Amino acid sequence: MKVTETNLTDVKIIEPAVFGDHRGFFTESYSVEDFKAAGIDFDFIQDNHSLSTQPGVLRGLHFQKGESAQTKLIRVVTGAVLDVIVDIRKGSPTYGKWEGYILSEHNHRQLLVPRGFAHGFVTLTPNVNFMYKCDNYYDAEADGGISFADPDLAIDWPIAIEKAITSEKDAKQPTLKEFEAENPFVYGEI
């Protein structure tokens, strides 16, 4: 397993070993022992799975607040996405910065998203099966988000943003500046 640090503080790309032959491939997508040996020690207690049937589906940018904040371990089982995260931890060296990563069924990459990051993705192919582990249960009362179209973030989505297929809720999220007054995330305290 290869673990790569990213430009965003505490975010990691994980590339598990993949063994392929004429039949296909085998990979051990998660092993507590291997992850702990690599310094990634979270108690993942919930798995989530979404299906997006067409390219251009944009989900996010989401997070859970307070005691319900979540670390996520993300992977794509079928298809491909541009996965985008934004550091919203006040005081972080990378506060307000975003990065995007291609996750696909072909590259087998996984993304470790710590608590205090807003997360979203846009599908690049049809029939994307998107899975992620969480170290905390979903809590509707703690659900939060920021706008995927925040002009200050200037995320370089690979689609025309006005053509994104999104939920009404996601289309109405506040900008990071608008969220700032209620932002509970503080670097080093999560």
From TrEMBL:
It catalyses: dTDP-4-dehydro-6-deoxy-alpha-D-glucose = dTDP-4-dehydro-beta-L-rhamnose. Pathway: Carbohydrate biosynthesis; dTDP-L-rhamnose biosynthesis. Its EC number is 5.1.3.13. It comes from Enterococcus dongliensis. CDD domains: cupin_RmlC. This is dTDP-4-dehydrorhamnose 3,5-epimerase. Catalyzes the epimerization of the C3' and C5'positions of dTDP-6-deoxy-D-xylo-4-hexulose, forming dTDP-6-deoxy-L-lyxo-4-hexulose. Belongs to the dTDP-4-dehydrorhamnose 3,5-epimerase family. Pfam families: dTDP_sugar_isom. GO terms for molecular function: dTDP-4-dehydrorhamnose 3,5-epimerase activity. Homodimer. Keywords: Isomerase.
